[in-house]
Amino acid sequence: VQPNNYSTFYDDQRQNWSIMFESEKAAMDFSKQVCIAKCNSSSVFDSVLYQDLLLGEGQGAEGGDSLEIAYTGWLFQNNGIGQVFDSNANKEKLLRLKLGSGKVIKGWEEGMMGMKKGGRRYLIIPPALAYGTQGVAGRVPPDSTLVFEVEVRRVKLVKEGSGSDGQSVSSRDSLAPSPVPNSDGFSAD
């Protein structure tokens, strides 16, 4: 997905194509369907599939960086989007996570790498990188493939610097309200 409602892609003959959409929503909806089609056409689905919906701005997040995220998660059922099993999209409190901390499912750790402030991404996560054979009682059946739409509202980049602990933290805030910071109290969901 490109600015001004364009999408570009290569076909199986490596020809480059561009499509212009009438709205940002139409471009995002098309991109979501492309990601679902990739999942449905994969003979082996063992890694996170993702599609950027909005690229965001600034430097991409890496291991050790902290993100504040709005998200919605669906079960992948009947080769498409099923029921919502978790969301904070209509809540004031954002999910805080530190990439590489192991406090969220592995598919999120992989799928969030490189995201930028203001970025939106569509993730399709195989069971092995989600909740596996355990599932989550009453919410996620065992061996479920999960779909998430995530939006990064805030990024704290950890850079080598001269702080008291040898690192300095650069913070870029968005216009969206964010929760009061707590000390690594990241959600396990």
From TrEMBL:
It holds the Pfam family FKBP_C. It is an enzyme of class 5 (isomerase). One of its GO terms (molecular function) is peptidyl-prolyl cis-trans isomerase activity. It comes from the Eukaryota. It is found in: Cell projection, Axon; Cytoplasm; Early endosome. It catalyses: [protein]-peptidylproline (omega=180) = [protein]-peptidylproline (omega=0). GO terms for biological process: endocytosis. Its EC number is 5.2.1.8. Keywords: Acetylation, Actin-binding, Cell projection, Coiled coil, Cytoplasm, Endocytosis, Endosome, Isomerase, Phosphoprotein, Rotamase, Transport. GO terms for cellular component: early endosome; growth cone. Its main location: other. Residues 160-189 are annotated as: Disordered. InterPro entries: PPIase_dom_sf, PPIase_FKBP_dom. Residues 64-156 form the PPIase FKBP-type domain. Interacts with WIP and actin. Interacts with TBC1D23. Belongs to the FKBP-type PPIase family. This is peptidylprolyl isomerase. It comes from Eudromia elegans. The lineage of its organism: Eukaryota, Metazoa, Chordata, Craniata, Vertebrata. The gene is Fkbp15.
